[in-house]
Design a protein that fits this description.
Blueprint (H helix, E strand, L loop, with lengths): L4 H7 L6 E4 L3 E5 L7 E7 L14 H17 L7 E4 L3 H4 L8 E5 L9
Antiparallel strand pairs: 1-2, 2-3, 3-5, 4-5
The structure holds adenosine monophosphate and zinc ion.
Zinc ion binds next to helix 1.
């Protein structure tokens, strides 16, 4: 999608701080980190939000979640714990409408979330 910020990062039109890339998935550091590790894991194909995920996307969503776990493992935060979040639409505070899995860790998280 031409006016999508994360599609522009995927295409290299805007520079991202890339931590992982393959044919289908890109992970990059959040520009405004909320924890010592704050990585966004995104599909390269534009999907607007979790509301737009179809059954044929199940494998791709699995790849996002397993990639987040792999990055957590690499960062040494797996056993201590971390949080993974899809914000969806207004009430969750979604601001970028290209689905992204937040990986947050390196500090204790609070529950319930704000
Ligand atoms: P959400 O509020 O769930 O839609 O999350 C969007 C996230 O994208 C926020 O945490 C922003 O800090 C992050 N963000 C916005 N612009 C950029 C950018 N250019 N590079 C990396 N992360 C970004
Ligand atoms: Zn996009």
């Amino acid at each position: 999608m031409s006016d999508c910020l994360f599609c522009k990062i995927i295409k290299g039109e805007i520079k991202g701080s890339i931590v992982y890339e393959d044919d289908r998935v890109l992970a990059f550091n959040d520009i405004n980190p909320q924890a010592p590790t704050h990585v966004l894991v995104v599909p390269k194909r534009h999907i607007t939000s979790l509301n737009d995920v179809a059954p044929e996307d199940d494998e791709l969503i699995g790849e996002l979640t397993r990639r987040a776990a792999a990055i957590a493992r690499e960062r040494g935060i797996s056993s201590g714990g971390y949080r993974t979040v899809f914000n969806t639409n207004r009430d969750a505070g979604q601001t970028v409408f290209h689905i992204h899995l937040h990986l947050l860790g390196g500090r204790a998280m609070h529950w319930p979330p704000g």
